[in-house]
Amino acid sequence: MDQLRRNQTTAEQATALEDGNNNFLTNKPYSARFRELLKQRRRLPVSANRSRFLELYQRSRVIILTSDTGSGKTTQSTQFILFDEFASGKMVACTQPRRLAATSVATRVAEELDVELGAQVGYNVRFDVKGSKETRLGYMTDGKLLAGAMADPLFSKYCCIIIDEAHERTIPTDILLALLKRAISDRDDLSVVIMSATLDAQRFQKSFWR
Question: Which parts of the chain span the membrane according to its record (predicted)?
Answer without folding.
Answer: none
